């Protein structure tokens, strides 16, 4: 949060400096785009091969083979989910929310891709359908499915409240990953990373630039659908904030379960191949 602007007087050219037009940091005109029509056609005759119920204030892991689809579905009431993704073969390759934000924007929807961490930097999953794409941006600058927040965690909770809370999304994801891999929590915790906040409605205040949340517009039956570009290991936390209309990291909010469904198409999308790792040679200069 910026300090109140009363400590330094404005220079004479302040207005001119503010009027300088912005420049997009990462122009994406040359970025390869997914063939959404081919992805949609691949749904025809697909078969559900797995489903996982994520209990309230908890998380579960799941696997999605490359070339398959998965959905995160609201089933009982408004509920936000925190999503982590890893390469199924390498926990070191994980979802890179910062680069995904830089390439797509602060909030994701149909056609956007979730990119993996350096040095891999390749699409992990493509969003193929979003039943909340009607929401757009509201009068407060809020929208859904953000890649700006981190995840509620017990360390920040302890810092701000002086209390321990063990069912923050970070802890939930840590438990889910540990159980899914049958490894100790302290061993896998460093692999838990910043998330896609599925169904969460967020933005930045215009006066102070603070990250805000508001009641999610999600309702039972809404879903966010993905196509797995590589073999994926995922974990989803049903946030202890419920629809995040008041607070998170507590047992006060009304919370609901979420559903993960995995679908295998009869054949991969026409022309699709799983992307290879980024071809940069890692020389990094002299």
Structure description:
- There is one protein chain.
- 16% of the residues lie in helices and 28% in strands.
- The chain is α+β, with helices and mostly antiparallel strands and 286 residues long.
- The strands form two sheets. Strands 2, 4, 5, 8, 9, 10 and 12 form a seven-stranded antiparallel β-sheet that branches. A six-stranded antiparallel β-sheet has the order 1-13-3-11-7-6.
- 39% of the residues are buried.
Overview in brief:
The chain has helices at about 15-20, 35-40, 95-105, 155-160, 170-180, 185-190; strands at about 45-55, 60-65, 70-75, 80-85, 90-95, 115, 125-130, 145, 195-205, 210-215, 225-230, 230-240, 260-265.
Strands, helices and their partners?
Blueprint: H1 14-18, H2 36-42, E1 47-54, E2 59-64, E3 69-74, E4 81-87, E5 90-94, H3 97-104, E6 113-115, E7 123-130, E8 143-146, H4 154-161, H5 169-181, H6 185-188, E9 196-204, E10 211-214, E11 223-228, E12 232-238, E13 258-264
Antiparallel strand pairs: 1-13, 2-12, 3-11, 3-13, 4-5, 4-9, 4-12, 6-7, 7-11, 8-9, 9-10
Q: How confident is the prediction overall: mean pLDDT?
A: 95
The main sheet comes to: 7 strands, antiparallel
Instruction: Indicate the radius of gyration in whole angstroms.
Output: 20 Å
What order do the helices and strands follow? HHEEEEEHEEEHHHEEEEE
Alpha-carbon distance between the termini? 39 Å
Shape: globular
Q: What is the count of helical runs?
A: 6
Query: Portion of residues in helices?
Result: 10-25%
Instruction: Please state roughly what percent of the residues sit in beta strands, choosing from under 5%, 5-15%, 15-25%, 25-35%, 35-45% or over 45%.
Output: 25-35%
Helical/strand content category: alpha+beta
* Poorly predicted ranges: none
Q: Care to count the β-strands?
A: 13
């Amino acid at each position: 949060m910026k300090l109140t602007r009363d400590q330094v007087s404005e220079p004479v050219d302040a207005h001119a400096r503010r009027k300088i037009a912005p420049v997009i940091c990462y122009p994406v005109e040359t970025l390869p785009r997914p063939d959404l029509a081919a992805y949609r056609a691949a749904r025809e005759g697909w078969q559900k091969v797995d489903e996982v119920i994520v209990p309230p204030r908890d998380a579960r892991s799941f696997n999605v083979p490359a070339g398959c689809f998965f959905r995160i579905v609201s089933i009982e009431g408004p509920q936000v989910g925190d999503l982590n993704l890893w390469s199924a073969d390498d926990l070191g390759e994980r979802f890179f929310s910062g680069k995904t934000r830089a390439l797509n924007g602060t909030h994701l929807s149909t056609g956007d891709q979730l990119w993996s961490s350096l040095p891999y930097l390749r699409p992990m999953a493509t969003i193929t359908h979003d039943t909340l794409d009607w929401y757009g941006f509201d009068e407060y600058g809020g929208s859904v499915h953000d890649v700006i927040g981190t995840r509620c965690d017990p360390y920040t909770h302890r810092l701000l409240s002086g209390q321990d809370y063990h069912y923050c999304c970070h802890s939930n994801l840590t438990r889910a990953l540990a159980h899914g891999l049958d490894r100790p929590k302290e061993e896998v915790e460093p692999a838990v990373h910043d998330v896609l906040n599925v169904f969460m409605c967020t933005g930045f205040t215009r006066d102070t630039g603070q990250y805000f949340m508001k009641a999610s517009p999600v309702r039972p039956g809404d879903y966010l659908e993905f196509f797995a570009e590589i073999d994926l290991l995922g974990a989803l936390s049903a946030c202890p904030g419920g629809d995040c209309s008041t607070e998170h990291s507590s047992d006060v909010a009304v919370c609901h379960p979420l559903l993960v469904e995995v679908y295998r198409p009869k054949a991969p999308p026409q022309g699709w191949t799983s992307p290879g790792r980024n071809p940069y040679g890692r020389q990094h200069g002299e």
